[in-house]
Design a protein that fits this description.
alpha/beta; 2 domains; 14 strands; binds magnesium ion; Rossmann fold; 5 helices; Spo0b-associated Gtp-binding Protein, Chain: A; 12% helix; binds guanosine-5'-triphosphate; 5-stranded mixed β-sheet
Length: 389
């Protein structure tokens, strides 16, 4: 299960170049000067991302290192058009964020089912020489080249779209809570880092309503410096509307534990602190009633100024109160917006899958006219054809 959860892939993408316009002069037996009749080149294919709610990981893209749309065909004589290149559609789970593979800069994101984002536009086809005939130049011996292809190496990252994200040290009881409130079956054990990949569950609430909860691997002090599993999974809570912090009642100093968690989140992305927070004191069955009462009266806990709920997933205590508190926060207007600016990623630090192999340069050079390879001066064509669109 965990090996199949892929939330990071790096892919080289290229759109198709536009087909070249054709330079052709019509000649027939009784029509030696039939005039220019070169047709237009076809459009190159684009590389397009499409959201698909049935996908939960980027696994299907793991071994796909290159995605290339096809080139537009050349125009032909008798004003025949070149064929358009085929688009390449990359299906991605909703919540996929795209970064530039070299600079780490944010490019775009796909949030909704069937949402289409054009990542790389195919080149426009060149115009055939038929378009360039004028009163003074009735036999233009040139045509327009196709627009070049675009290429880019991109990093796709999945940031799951959940309403509530669980934040806590390892062993805080996050996965146990998820297993109690939803149908999800996360692994649960009394050793740290049981959960290695994010898990999602749908929590059903009263009157047939529901919300989504994400359990992410535990965070420890120094996670922002790469300790434990580091902050690699924190991106999955970037888009949650509410963060549910979990601190066990057995903790020696719950307030300190909460503050460490908050600090690590801040190190990762200060915007996380603008989200609504709820603190759940978990495992209340593991301490005496007296100790629970003491925690309930604790001035230091109350001083945190956030809603606090006392729960025990094992004994089923406080679970309904917790759901109520989460539902209330989720429905507050200021918590509806789950937009967040995606900070650029550090491509040097992020762990990489192996680099894409050198790409295949061996393609047909088709945009040149008369089979002569020369640098095209695209300025020459200003004002005519595609750049006037
Ligand atoms: N007594 C008691 N034990 C609990 C409760 N909730 C969880 N535990 C125990 O605490 C241990 C850790 O629980 P997990 O749910 O795996 O903790 P986690 O926060 O998901 O841990 P990581 O995945 O390692 O980050 C397990 O042995 C659970 O049985 C609770 O409400 N009461
Ligand atoms: Mg867990």
């Amino acid at each position: 299960m965990s090996a199949n959860f892929i939330d990071y892939v790096k892919i080289y993408c290229r759109s198709g170049k536009g087909g070249a316009g054709c330079m052709h002069l019509h000649r027939a037996k009784y029509l030696p000067k039939g005039g220019p009749d070169g047709g237009d080149g076809g459009k190159g294919g684009s590389v397009i991302l499409r959201g698909n709610r049935n996908l939960w990981t980027l696994l299907h893209l793991k071994y796909q290192k290159h995605i290339m749309a096809t080139d537009g065909g050349k125009g032909g004589q008798s004003r025949s058009f070149g064929k358009d290149g085929e688009n390449k559609i990359i299906e991605v789970p909703c919540g996929t964020v795209v970064y530039d593979g070299e600079t780490g800069e944010f490019i775009c994101e796909v949030k909704e089912h069937n949402e289409r984002v054009v990542l790389l536009k195919g080149g426009r086809g060149g115009l055939g020489n038929w378009h360039f005939r004028t009163a003074t130049n009735q036999a233009p011996r040139y045509a327009q080249p196709g627009e070049p292809a675009q290429e880019r190496t991109v990093i796709l990252q999945l940031k799951v779209l959940a309403d509530v994200g669980l934040v806590g040290f390892p062993n805080a009881g996050k996965s146990t809570l998820l297993s109690v409130v939803s149908a999800a079956k996360p692994e649960i054990a009394d050793y740290p880092f049981t959960t290695l990949t994010p898990q999602l569950g749908i929590v059903s609430y009263r009157d047939g309503r529901s919300f989504c909860m994400a359990d992410i691997p535990g965070i420890i002090e120094g996670a922002s410096e790469g300790r434990g599993l580091g902050l690699r999974f924190l991106r999955h809570i970037e888009r949650n509307a509410v963060l549910l912090f979990m601190v066990p009642a057995t903790s020696e100093n719950p307030v300190k534990e909460y503050k460490i968690l908050l600090h690590e989140l801040e190190q990762y992305n200060p915007e996380l602190l603008t989200k609504a927070r709820i603190l759940a004191i978990s495992k209340c069955d593991a301490v005496t009633d007296k100790e629970v009462q003491k925690l309930k009266k604790s001035k230091r806990l109350a001083g945190l100024d956030i809603p606090i709920v006392f729960i025990s997933s094992v004994a089923g205590q406080g679970i309904d109160a917790l759901k109520d508190a989460l539902w209330t926060e989720l429905n507050k207007e200021q918590n509806q917006v789950i937009e967040i600016s995606h900070a650029p990623i550090d491509v040097a630090v992020i762990e990489r899958e192996e680099e894409p192999e050198a790409r295949n340069e061996d393609e047909e050079g088709t945009i040149y006219l008369n089979e002569v390879e020369e640098e095209w001066d695209l300025d020459k064509y200003k004002g005519i054809g595609w750049d006037t669109e």
